[in-house]
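Bumping with the actual sequence this time:
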Amino acid sequence: MTFETLKLAPAIVKAVLEQGYTTPTPIQAQAIPAVLAGGDLLGGAQTGTGKTAAFALPILHRLAMSRSATNRSGGTGIRALVLTPTRELAAQVEESFRVYGKYLQLKSTVIFGGVGMNPQIDALRRGVDIVVATPGRLLDLQQQGKLDLSTVQVLVLDEADRMLDMGFIHDIKKLLALLPRQKQSLLFSATFSDDIRELAQGLLNNPASIRHVTPRYNASHRSRTRSGALKRRRC
């Protein structure tokens, strides 16, 4: 199997190939068709399995193949929302969207705490299709009236077990209440506690399930950073 056979838009495949990836990982081979089909997904995956690309690539495809949304202010509405437990992961995930979507007319931004709000507010005001965020800062912006989630079509809870371990469950539930009822929801977790199962049961509608897909990248899956050094890259 190759990325071409997954029926992704040629512009996305081109960007993926430029990163040196030719063969999907097991979770990508299973998750990408499921997400493209439009249904909900419950994914069990460890870090390093290619999980980010497993949802980023089909989300980019779906957004590229559909019309942009308009928010309540008349600007570009958020169509995909990814929630992550840490700002480091949020930054990595948003970078993946930018790298794989470099040939698409889609805009993304990352939102997390510990930095000033104004640049994040400006990005939202200019309009973005994809937001990757930590729950706390996103909720802060919403409570200040700076965020409109009424146009979200796809929601991703990434590393949901870590978010619950870090005490984000109440923030997550508040954010879920602000989202449209009709949306595609994807939940990824390395472990499945009773709390995760309860969250999934309340969020997901007849989801496809992908579990125990844990092979990690080997040394050949590496790419060059902007500084020129080699490092393991999370797809």
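The tokens above came from a reply further down the thread. The chain has one domain: 4-62+73-212.
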